[in-house]
Write a structure and sequence with these properties.
It comes from Deinococcus radiodurans (strain ATCC 13939 / DSM 20539 / JCM 16871 / CCUG 27074 / LMG 4051 / NBRC 15346 / NCIMB 9279 / VKM B-1422 / R1). InterPro entries: Acyl_CoA_acyltransferase (IPR016181), Bact_Acetyltransf (IPR050832), GNAT_dom (IPR000182). Keywords: Acyltransferase, Transferase. By secondary structure, this protein is α+β, with helices and mostly antiparallel strands. It has 2 domains: 29-168, 3-Layer(aba) Sandwich (Aminopeptidase), CATH 3.40.630; 172-345, Aminopeptidase (3-Layer(aba) Sandwich), CATH 3.40.630.30. Helices cover 30% and strands 29% of the residues. The protein has helices at 38-55, 64-70, 123-138, 154-161, 181-187, 206-216, 236-248, 298-313, 329-338, and strands at 29-31, 78-87, 90-100, 107-114, 142-148, 164-175, 196-201, 252-260, 265-274, 281-289, 319-325, 341-351. A 12-stranded mixed β-sheet has the order 1-2-3-4-5-12-6-11-10-9-8-7, with helices on both faces. A hairpin with a 4-residue loop joins strand 8 (252-260) and strand 9.
Length: 356
């Protein structure tokens, strides 16, 4: 199985040389998107989009307006504490602490970005200090974040904070048009009397909602490295909130689920995310099969069926991108056979925020 693609993987690639006059930067301050003006949210959205463009110049650009809207999206049971470094009305640095208010109360996830031409001025350290202070107030002793080799400054910065790598991930991409049709047919061939059937949903029907939430918790069996977190509980409310988040981003979330018709139980699923505004790129989210149902080629069936759906349902889609733990040999093998090629390295880190 593969871990869900996270939107926490946006990091600028390298500093740009510049000759501009240095701006005066205020210390980072708490930022409440709901209380902020539309212009302030857009300034932060512009920062996120600009940093992404530097890190991934060949990708379809992020839309600042969409990123600004996403700042207002908070899933049930979760909270986001944001800090921004400002120079007048311009957002130059940003950090976010995301955490559940009922589960894994010792952990939080973080993101930190600084404009490339404003680095090496202590802004990253100041943002990290603000994040650490807030985590301490909340009693969050473990902070989890990601770096990518597309932003080479991220790894040494993480090490300088004293963070430890907990999982080495391979980011891979698939060229949709290059997948052989005979491979797709072979992977979707099912035995006579097969009890499983596939469902394709943009929005999970109400009568399948609880079953879908239960199925998604299979991701707790995915490799987690040195992870000390308890298993995560997925609720129907969380599924609906994820659907709402996709709608706010203007993206289409396709979910394929395999049902055992003998029992009505959902035993496997795969999900992808695609936006017509960034049509060339599809993000592969989770793919998982219940342990008791493995060994029946359900994972290959789901993956092949999804490729065909993307070809039909997502005009302009060229690439599918996914993220897998290097130690997840089974899922990596399926992806390699399908045609995924290594594209980037993503490291998942644990950080105590300076606490022993």
């Amino acid at each position: 199985m593969t871990a869900p693609s996270a939107r926490w993987l946006m990091h600028p690639r390298r500093p740009r040389r510049h000759t501009a006059i240095m701006t005066t930067i205020a210390p980072p301050v708490r930022f409440d998107p709901a209380a902020a003006s539309a212009a302030q949210r857009l300034a932060v959205g512009q920062l996120l989009a600009d940093c992404y463009a530097v890190a991934y110049p060949e990708d379809p650009p992020l839309l600042p307006e969409r990123e600004a809207d996403l700042l207002l999206q908070v899933t049930p049971d979760e909270a986001n504490d944001l800090f921004v470094s400002w120079a007048g009305a311009r957002a130059l640095g940003y950090t976010a602490l995301n955490y559940s208010q009922t589960q894994n109360l010792h952990t939080a996830r973080a993101q930190l970005l600084v404009r490339p031409d404003e680095r090496r001025r202590g802004m990253g350290r100041a943002l990290a200090a603000a994040l650490t202070e807030r985590a301490g107030e909340l009693g969050r002793t473990t902070i989890v974040f990601f770096t990518t080799n597309f932003a080479p400054a991220g790894e040494p910065f993480a090490r300088s904070l004293g963070a430890q790598v907990r999982l080495d991930n391979r980011t891979s991409r698939l060229e949709l048009a290059a997948v052989p049709s005979d491979l797709l047919r072979d992977w979707q061939r099912r035995p006579e009397g097969d009890p499983y059937r596939l469902h394709l949903w943009d929005t999970v029907p109400d009568d399948y909602l609880a079953r879908t939430a239960d199925l998604m918790m299979v991701m707790n069996t995915a490799p987690r490295g040195s992870d000390q977190e308890d298993d995560w509980v997925v609720t129907p409310e969380l599924v609906r909130a994820q659907e709402a988040e996709s709608a706010a981003l203007g993206e289409r979330r396709l979910l394929l689920a395999a049902e055992d018709t003998r029992t009505g139980e959902l035993v496997g699923y795969t999900e992808t995310f695609w936006s017509p505004e960034r049509a060339a790129l599809v993000y592969q989210g989770a793919t998982a099969v219940r342990p008791a149902a493995r060994g029946q080629r359900l994972g290959k069936w789901l993956k092949a069926a999804m490729v065909e759906q993307l070809r039909r349902e997502c005009p302009g889609a060229v690439w599918v991108r996914t993220n897998n733990a290097e130690e997840n040999a089974a899922m990596l093998a399926i992806n390699v056979q399908l045609g995924f090629q290594p594209w980037a390295q993503t490291l998942e880190w644990e950080w105590s925020g300076g606490r022993a």
